[in-house]
Amino acid sequence: MIPLKSQKELQMLKRSGRILADVLQKVQRIVQPGITTSDIDRLSEELILKEKALPAFKGYKGFPATACVSVNEEIVHGVPGPRILLEGDIVSIDLGVNYRGYFADAAVTLPVGKIEGLKKKLIEVASRALDIGIAQALAGNNLTDISFGIQSFVEGHGFSVVRQFVGHGIGRALHEEPEIPNFGKPHLGPQLKSGMVLAIEPMINIGGWECRITANGWTAETSDGASSAHFEHTVAITDKGPVILTK
After folding, report:
1. What is the pLDDT of residues 69-103, one digit of tens each?
2. Crossing angle of helices 7-28/37-50, nearest 10°?
3. Residues 115, 120, 121: CA angle, nearest 5 degrees
4. In this structure, what is the dihedral angle of CA atoms 139, 141, 143, 147, given to the nearest 10 degrees?
5. Which CATH code is given to the segment(s) 7-244?
6. Helices assigned H by DSSP within 29-86
7. What average pLDDT does this structure show over 99-123?
8. Which pLDDT band holds residue 48 (cuts at 50, 70, 90)?
9. What is the pLDDT of residue 24?
10. Is 41 strand, coil or helix?
11. Does 116 have pLDDT greater than 90?
12. Per-domain boundaries in the chain
């Protein structure tokens, strides 16, 4: 069952989303060659706690950090550590906030210094794919209208869509029903209704869509070593159209 949020719940989720948007914007400013992935994690936690909120990921099913920081071929769930970001890398930062029991989730992929070619195009297509998915988050549409919009756009630009990880409902828990694949045929699945809140998150690769989990038990990376990009927003479905809560 997909929970529908009350107006009071939506207001609290909006507050959580605003905190996350502000934190993620500030964290992005430190991304440059020479910093470590743990620098990103440390700042993320400091900023979230400063807002009297809690990191949603830290301790979740045992995850050891506040931020998921994934570099180049890493798709999602990158564990921060001593890895130094280098000129020409791309880095995905995925953050979650728990504000008074209301959750928000967002991610962005950024260039480290100057990038060009396929990596630059990858980020542009992944960002636009998120916009396209959100545009389909309309009351009366079916769930896979989001999926189909993302997949058809991404594959039309020559990239692949990750199958093993999907978006999800969100609200009083970090992960709620439904799962939201970034691939599939249109007009299938449950009908979207006003009051649903979804974390829509395309993950796309330069090469094939297959992935593997690394030795740390968390980080997913592309099987062929090609780079990956990840964008995410928490979105409320309303009678007036989708509202991005993490913007």
Report:
1. 999 999 999 999 999 999 999 999 999 999 999 99
2. 140
3. 160
4. -120
5. 3.90.230.10
6. 37-50
7. 97
8. very high
9. 98
10. helix
11. no
12. 7-244
DSSP secondary structure of 112-158: SS---HHHHHHHHHHHHHHHHHHHT--TTSBHHHHHHHHHHHHHHTT
Q: Which residue has the tokens 């159209």?
A: 241
CA-CA-CA-CA torsion sign (204, 206, 79, 213): positive
Can the peptide bond before residue 178 be classed as cis, meaning omega within 30 degrees of 0?
A: yes
Specify the residue for token string 């507050």: 15
Q: Do 107 and 232 form a contact (C-beta atoms < 8 A)?
A: yes
Q: Residue 46 is encoded by which pair of tokens?
A: 């400091």
Q: Please tell me the pTM assigned to this model.
A: 0.97
> How many CA atoms are closer than 13 Å to the CA of 182, on its beta-carbon side?
30
CB 219 within 8 A of CB 77: yes
CB neighbours (10 Å) of residue 99?
21
Residue 104 predicted with pLDDT over 90: yes
Cα 7 off chain centre by: 24
> What is the distance, to the nearest Å, from the Cα of residue 207 to the centroid of all Cα atoms in its chain?
20
